Amino acid sequence: MARETGKRICIIDDDADVRNSVRALLESYEFPTIDFPSATDFLAATPPADIGCFLLDLQMPGMTGLELLEHLRSTGVDTPAIMVTANGQRLAHRFVRAGALAVLRKPIGDVELLHWIRKALADV
Q: Does residue 58 surpass a pLDDT of 50?
């Protein structure tokens, strides 16, 4: 299979099983990935410049995915973001206002996730 893109998908989720399964799926389609177990770990790192899309979990200890997205937007980072949640549909309007491209409910279907990842990267 041909490499989808040179841009990395940045997965930020406190659930290691979710990170590992999403990373395995995306890498099987040759999407390069990088992942972090929390928003604070992401902010403490020096993120690579080649991030093409964020995949953010809503519920994480400390800073939530929504708070991270709002922080990124306030600092001028306009990289497409997809929000993932098990129970945050009531906050969908805040995700959209913060600049999320999509809000996906867990468990995420492979086809749905790949659709939104490709859409996000097409916008980069």
A: yes
**pTM beyond 0.70, yes or no:** yes
Amino acid identity, residue 118? R
> Phi, psi (5° rounding) for residue 102?
-155, 160
**Is 3.40.50.2300 the CATH classification of the domain at 8-122?**
yes
The answer to whether the CB of 84 falls within 8 A of the CB of 106 is: yes
What is the spatial distance between Cα 102 and Cα 117, in angstroms, rounded to a whole number?
A: 10
Q: What would the two tokens of residue 103 be?
A: 């809000």
Contacts of residue 52, Cβ cutoff 8 Å, sequence gap at least 6 = 5, 7, 8, 9, 79, 80, 120, 121, 124
Q: For the chain, give percent helix, strand, coil, nearest 5.
A: 40, 20, 35
